[in-house]
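Researcher: Go.
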Amino acid sequence: MVYLSKSSVLSAYCKLSLLSENPLTQGATQKVSALRYFIALDMFYKTNGTNCDTKNNSDKELFSECVGNFVSVNSEKYTSNFYYPLTNSDKDYNCGSNFYSVNVIKESITNPNRIFDFPRRGKMPLIKIQNGTLIHDVSLYHNLNSYLGDSGEMKAALVIWLLRNNPIKDETSSGIKDALGVIITNPLYQILTDFEEELLEQYLSFSESVSYINDMDIKQSVNPINNKMTLTTPHTNSYKKYLLALRTKPFLLLAGISGTGKSRIVREFAFKSCPKYLQDKDGTTPGNYCMIEVKPNWHDSTELLGYYSNLSKEYQFKKFVKFLVKAKMYTDVPFFVCLDWRTLAPVEQYFAEVLSILETRKHPRNPETKEVDMKTIKTEVIVEAKYFQQLGKMPIFKNKETGDPLKQKLTDRDIYMKLYGIDEEKDINKEVGEKTELTTLGLTLPGNVLIIGTVNMDDTTHQFSRKVIDRAMTIEMNGGNLSAMFGGSKNLEYLEDEAEQQKWQNAFTQRYISADEVLEAHPQEAETIMEKLPERLNEINKALKGTPFEVSYRVLNELTIMVGVMLDEGMDLDDAIAQSVNNILLMKILPRIEGDAEMFALSREYKTKVGVTYDNRLEWLKNIAPDIKEPLTDAESDNNDTEEKAEAVKEHQPTAKDKIQEMIDRLNNQEFTRFWP
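Model: Structure:
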């Protein structure tokens, strides 16, 4: 007897990590969850010869054991998505909280005469459930092909994974198949072995004993192979800070001197992520990009959100609202709103409603399953439903023979086409387009919309208030390596490779809205996160005590989300915390700080009370800021052997310590300082 080697098992694991197109996005574990319960039921039936009654404790225990046979990585860890990180094992592999007591099983017990499908989504059920009993229904087994694909590659990987701890009589494909037949029923066996034999042979290497894999094995193996999940591939270090900021919060401010490419980089993101069906023929304006130039006379939200005209008795829809409606039609594509702040118009007066609505983002509960729907982001209403209902007076479809308007229910798709004056749009997501949310609920802020404001920080513009900065991520864009301009026009061209487009689209996916979601996704790190992050911010607040610059829950929430994003990329927790604290200082805290020497002075009483010797608060902050080394940009890393290049990078990508020292120098020279030059 032999066993599969560690390399075989890891290769299968890496292949299975691709079951979901992007395992780190919202709702990504649904496919794996369906598979694990289906295969567990098959194993249960193979062992017990009966259906599984979840109201019976012995059945529940055996079923949970079968689930463990599918998801366990070793005696201590199991996986929820065949990616990373792993979860600490418990007695029932989370079946009690995620399967037995919620979702369709709970509903089936409430309605015992009704037979329910599982899973409900996708119309490809794998299990029938009645009164809490999981029914072994062979007629559903063919649906498994829709989960694993037709190529056979996933099936071969799944066979290897299922046999990772099982003895095999000989080192051949037939030996593998014989071992498989011992643990699953014949109908499942027939489906899982329906592939070309060479697909299985690529995995065949053996060991004399069971070769368990661990966290580090998976972290090192999966991250390089499944490159859709990292920001570093295919995205360069040059873009990394922007992507990180936007995945933390979909409202970003780019500020600095004129001509540093603030508006340009927003267009770059749109070009790189724009699918073919949203590309314009001239190659100048991607369909997922909208530039809005703020005018000096904007003193309320009407130029953004529109208004009801008493003269025409109609709602006047503005460019911003139309673009949000368009974004609702293509939920898998990031849509970029570039607000070009070039005037003295005060942001708080025309952007107040949007700022408030941004703070209402949440993952709603699915009305069918009662579970939190991580795929959807909801907000309060921006434009009321009654104004979209009025568009029903302008029917778009006509009888081809008579020319008479056709009576129909006004869908979101219809409203989009009316607003843009188009007759047909084939590429709208059908499920989304047929909804009637606009006429029943109104317009909310779509979860795929990213708002990026660009502003020249000089005397021609209105300065950001702390209220605005508190609700945004901020990146300063000044200086930089001038030679990097050459060749940059290629970044304003559409990508031909659809796979590359998809990778860029995935890069802007927002997984987290609240800190609690990060803790749930990373249970192993949760305790450390809850201890260290408040501790780091409390240190900062001590230095800012008595000033209007202290931080609160909003900053802690965003700091936690940023740590979660970095953990998703496979970064170590300590590094993730250090990098995130550095970024939060640069993006959230320091941009709010300004004042004279008196503002930053520390009284003798306070220094004695807290036990510090710093003469001013900025010196204290500098000491608190993490010691990190910023990565070189890709263009610069190719030529990083000179001091000149190193200095250029340092100037363009300062750390928080660097920036605080700059503020200290400004205070010493001018007796007044702030974040902005």
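Model: The CA atoms of residues 246 and 363 lie 17 Å apart.
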